[in-house]
Amino acid sequence: MLRLRSGLTLADNLPKLSCFMPTRVRYLVLASLCAVSALVYVQRQCLANAETVMRRELGFTVETMGFVLGAWLWTYAAFQIPGAKLGDVWGSQRALPLYCAVWSVTTILTAFVTWVPLLVALRFLFGAAHAGLFPCIALVIRHWMPVEKRGLSTGCVAAFQQLGAAGASQFAGWWLAIWLALSQPDWAASEKMTLPPLPSWVAALSGDSLDFLKAFFDWRNLFVWAALPGLIWSAWFSWWFRDRPSEHASVNEAELALMPRETPSSPQPPSAANPGSRGLCSLILTSPLMWLICGQQACRAFGYIFFQTWFPTFLVKTRGVSVSKSGSFTSLMFVAALLGALAGGVFSDWLLVRTQSRRVARQGLAILGLIGAAGFAIGAYFVESANAAVAVLACGSFCASLAGPSGYTVAIDVAGRHTTVVFATMNMAGNLGAAAFPILVPFLLKLPERLGASFSGWDLVLFVFGGIYLLSAVFWLGINPNRTIESKTA
After folding, report:
1. Residue 364 belongs to a domain
2. Is residue 234 scored above 50 in pLDDT?
């Protein structure tokens, strides 16, 4: 055993030496944020994956299920700012577990409700609870992560959203395939669904054992098992987390020194630095920087939603891809987005450390990524091969996601004490952009015919798709990440 000059062993001095080494509680906080981001996307995706089965079992029409599927988006947009304000008043320690518990309970109930108005009400409640999640996450990142780690933090959160969506699709597909093979093989065959062969030991089951397996893999239980981790996370996070690093018993002085300087948590009287609700609303509406941040977010969401909505149809109509293969190609877009979000966060923080310039690390990287996304989107028009076109568009998805962490980080940096409301306003603008694209596509598809043009509507969609990314880059040209929303200029 190594002995020091005092005669004590190194082990005897470890308690004293450890106080100079920062604890790593901040990384566990980040991991918990990534986990809840993935969990909400898992639950969000379950209904979409189970739509066909649920519609048949409950006797719903396609139109009814379409309304149910989209119901949560309305309250998700409408409750962004109220959800953020509740996070400000209660703190993330109480607000985040509440939101997660509410949407988890609504997910479970969704599987057992057969009355359409009540089902829609549950989806409204899911959207309202979901609305406050990311503004509260932004507040946690502001308090817990050093400035030079915020890009990585927001990039990880964005990446785990994609991971949750992709994981949910795989999990739900596997679960529903087993249930169909056990309980509804004839209907699955009539719908031309390809089911995996069951193990021989399953085929040999009969009586109570087979009935138990059928009951366990009932399609309703998919929602239950997808929601249970959210309830567990809510209980754990409420017990373990603290809104301020200084309040957490496991954070030592060395780690605390790495954190951003804390602002007073007690209520402050309205002032120029701390406006009341009306003053804050006026501040946001009159801030040029806020408008630019919302503009870039709306454009990025407008482009991203293409992959979630019309992209499979685009592949089928323009590149002759089969319906089944279009699903696999679509998943590649989300994988590319996941990798882009991680790369954008890491590279943005690396640039900040190397250059000490937020304009280079945040603004410059976002502009570069969005110009690349526009170039690849328009470049896909010139590619005939389906595989090559998908590869080109996957590169575009990667580039667009490079800008994501910059957008989230700049919103946190410029917001000051108004992090939740600023982030919620930006997120609401993104939702409006995302809602616009699916509605615009049918109009674009018919426009060439109305104009008597020789190009196809899908060609026009591609160019608009790329043009929107360029417009987002233009918004970024005016964003100065060194300013705040109180600034009279952007």
Report:
1. yes
2. yes
Domain assignment present for 16? no
Choose among 25, 57, 461, 409: nearest CA to 255: 25
Nearest Cα neighbor of 51 from 183, 191, 256 is: 191
Per-residue pLDDT band at 270 (split at 50, 70, 90): very low
187 in Cβ contact with 387 (< 8 Å):
no
**Looking at the structure, do residues 473 and 412 belong to the same domain, yes or no?**
yes
Instruction: Give domain status of residue 329, yes or no.
Output: yes
Higher pLDDT, residue 260 or 59: 59
Rounded Cα distance between 280 and 430, Å, is 20
CATH code of the domain in which 242 resides: 1.20.1250.20
Whether residue 5 is contained in a domain is answered as no
pTM for the structure as a whole: 0.77
Q: How far, in Å, CA of 409 to CA of 146, rounded? A: 11
Burial of 205 (0-12, 13-18, 19+ CB in 10 A): middle
- For residues 191 and 289, state if they share a domain: no
Residue ranges of alpha helices (H) inside 184-310 are 185-190, 200-203, 207-216, 219-240, 253-258, 277-285, 288-308
Whether residue 290 sits in one domain with residue 211: no
Residues 285 and 233 in one domain: no
**Gap between the Cα atoms of 342 and 285, Å rounded:** 32
Provide the 8-state DSSP code for 149.
Answer: G
Claim to verify: residue 323 and residue 367 sit in the same structural domain: yes
Q: Are residues 406 and 334 in the same domain?
A: yes
Say if residue 86 is in the same domain as residue 196: yes
Residue 336's domain spans which residues? 279-490
Q: What is the DSSP string of 439-466?
A: HHHHHHHHHHHHHT-SS-HHHHHHHHHH
Instruction: Render pLDDT for 384-410 as a digit per residue (tens, 0 to 9).
Output: 888 999 999 999 999 999 999 999 899
CA distance linking residue 204 with residue 206, whole number of Å = 7
Number of domains into which the chain is organized: 2
- 387: Cβ contacts below 8 Å, ≥ 6 apart: none
Length of the chain: 490
Res. 161 pLDDT band, cuts 50 70 90: confident
Sign of dihedral through CA atoms 225, 231, 234, 237? negative
For the stretch 73-128, pLDDT in tens is: 788 888 988 998 898 899 999 999 999 999 999 999 998 998 889 999 999 999 99
Distance from C-alpha of 414 to C-alpha of 408, rounded to nearest angstrom? 10
Going by C-alpha positions, the residue among 79, 110, 107 that lies closest to residue 95 is: 79
Residues 310 and 205 in one domain: no
CA atoms within 13 A on the CB side of 292: 23
| CA 169-173-177 angle, 5° bins | 175
pLDDT band for position 240 (cuts 50, 70, 90): very high
